[in-house]
Amino acid sequence: MITEAFRAAAQVRARALGLAEHPVVVIAHPLATRNQGQVRELVRNSLQEVVHGLLSGGPNPSVSLRNEEGPARVPESKKASRVQVQGSVSDINNHFHERGWTDGLPVIPPSEDLVLKMLEASPRSSEQSLGKMPPLNGTATVEKVAVNAVMAGCRPDYFPVVLAAVKAVLQPQFNVGSITTTTGGAAPVVVVSGPVARKLGIQSGTAVFGSGHRANATIGRALRLTMRNLGGATADTMEKSTHGWPGKYTMCFAENDERNPWEPLRVEMGFPPEASIVVVSAARGLHTLMEGTQGTGVAALQTLIEAMTAGGISGYLQERASAFGQAKRPGPLGRPLLAEGVRGSE
Question: Taking a C-beta distance cutoff of 8 angstroms, is the pair 296, 338 a contact?
Fold first, then answer.
């Protein structure tokens, strides 16, 4: 059962799964603005179609998910296809954008030599599959991820972090298919904890969510382009965010070890201090909180609680790495809390 606004997305998803003849009932959109009586009327009008679908097992003659003109199934081959485009960098970008391969920003043309340099930064085979990328289940091979990393502007030494982020979102518990298609507008937030963050220059301090940090910008973008190009969640079909947010382009930062009074995130998650890990969370956006008036850390927490529970604040958080964890960046609030005996896990 879908509303009219999701018909196109359902057609694309059904085609990818080979379920174009699956029983379906389409109801009016939206539901949220209708009163109880109107909803009951919709239910009564749809009930016969629901019963037909359940009992017959076939499609409603008047409604079909078949869409022969819709986007084709995402390629499943392990080898990235080769595309020859003649012209300037601007011409190549225009071609890529017309094909739906960009996020709207210019990309670095992924020539074979640049992709090979990216692949040299990882010991993995270029054809090794990391898994299927929902919602359209394209095969995420190391080579295909490398192509998207080049397009995003990554340096080759960023590539192992990009691969770790892709591997994290492909874990079933992360539910990346729902995250990329939800109306809530969730986007992946990449948190890097460990020595590799400093080595690569991944920002964790002042203006961490601002511009000018190449590693932050391109690592997060490479993940998003991979999700877009291999998973097929684009704004004209599967992407159904009500508004979305800038994190749909990129969101990556490092844990601030120097100012964290608690044990590092990687240690909290069971890894040794010298290890480097990547944690990916799904979030709906940023909410700036200013606090400088409370006299104790616990009192400052009350301000945080009140902000988190305010009307309209979206409470959406999914995380996946090798285990669940809580990314934290306490700043000046952390030390008063530590002095008052509040543990990081609290």
Answer: no
Write the CA distances from 249 to 181, 187, 224, integer angstroms. 15, 9, 7
Higher pLDDT, 2 or 326: 2
The backbone torsions φ and ψ at residue 87, rounded to the nearest 5 degrees and listed phi first, read 130, -170
Torsion 175-180-185-188 (CA) sign: positive
pLDDT per residue as tens digits for the range 37-89 = 999 998 888 888 888 888 876 666 555 556 545 544 555 667 778 888 889 99
Question: How far apart are alpha carbons 3 and 15 in whole angstroms?
Answer: 18
Structure-token pair, residue 314:
């979206």
Distance CA 247, CA 261 (A): 28
Secondary structure in 3-state letters for the chain = CEEHHHHHHHHHHHHHHCCCCCCCCEECCCCCCCCHHHHHHHHHHHHHHHHHHHHHCCCCCCCCCCCCCCCCCCCCCCCCCCCCCCCCHHHHHHHHHHCCCCCCCCCCCCCHHHHHHHHCCCCCCCCCEEEEECCCCEEEEHHHHHHHHHHHCCCHHHHHHHHHHHHHHCCHHHCHHHHHHCCCCCEEEEEEECHHHHHHCCCCCCCCCCCCCHHHHHHHHHHHHHHHHHHCCCCCCCCCCCCCCHHHCCCEEECCCCCCCCCCHHHHCCCCCCCCEEEEEEECCCCCCCCCCCCCHHHHHHHHHHHHCCCCCCCCEEEECCCCCCCCCCHHHHHHHHHCCCCCCC
Cis preceding linkage at 135, omega within 30 = yes
